[in-house]
Amino acid sequence: MSSFCNVLAIDDHAGVIGNRPKQLGAERVRSGSCTNLPLPDQSADFVTALDVLEHIGDDSIAVAEIARILKGNGVAVITVPALSQLWSDWDVALQHFRRYNRKSLKATLSHPQLRLTHLNYINVFALPAIWLARTIQKVRQSALRLEDQIPPAPFEMFSCARSCASRPARRGCGFPPASAFWRWCKKSEPSVLNSSRYVPQLVQC
Asked: How far apart (Å, rounded) are the C-alpha atoms in residues 70 and 81?
């Protein structure tokens, strides 16, 4: 990725940052919150927030920050957990505030400077196994969680379909309900590039 653009990773947990400055370079890692990104306005061409918004009490603040730092026509790629029916102690352990449905996610991302480009489910093939495991867990009131176990090889193969989901999603193919959402937003204002040798800036929240 760094060969195509300047990558900047931002996180507010010291444990997550860890040795990242040594691995990626100090100039590519910053400590900061996605509700108060340490970047000037219109400074990023791309922003990724992968499984981030569900950890924030007021997720609209994070969306406003993403819109603020994006340049005109900049793109934000966002993933969040889907389906409140799948809520379990795993969400509690991960400090999730919510799981999303289409309506709530659209409402969260309805910022005046952002327009929806793509919205689709991901992890389609994993949904039956996740739903079954969490249903059994609730019935048995078991402390054993599927997420704490190493999945069998066949399940891993099906889970690989997640990585293939983005291509048909970009073409507008709708997937059935699944355990997570994938959304692509674009900032409305046009952007002016100052150089023919411009290097895009990617921010990872």
From this structure: 24
Please tell me the distance from the alpha carbon of residue 44 to that of residue 77, in angstroms, as a whole number: 13
Going by C-alpha positions, the residue among 135, 153, 133 that lies closest to residue 145 is 133
Strands 29-31 and 180-187: unpaired
d(CA 108, CA 111): 8
How confident is the model over 134-179, as pLDDT tens digits? 777 777 765 555 555 545 555 444 444 444 444 444 445 566 666 7
How many residues are there in the chain?
Answer: 205
* Residues 161, 168 contacting (CB under 8 angstroms): no
Torsion on CA atoms 181, 187, 192, 198, rounded to nearest 10: -20
Short-list 130, 118, 119, 184, CA closest to 158? 130
> Taking the CB of residue 48, how many other CB atoms lie within 10 A of it?
18
Q: How far apart are CA 32 and CA 10, in angstroms?
A: 6
Instruction: Give bridge partners of residue 48 from the DSSP assignment.
Output: 77, 204
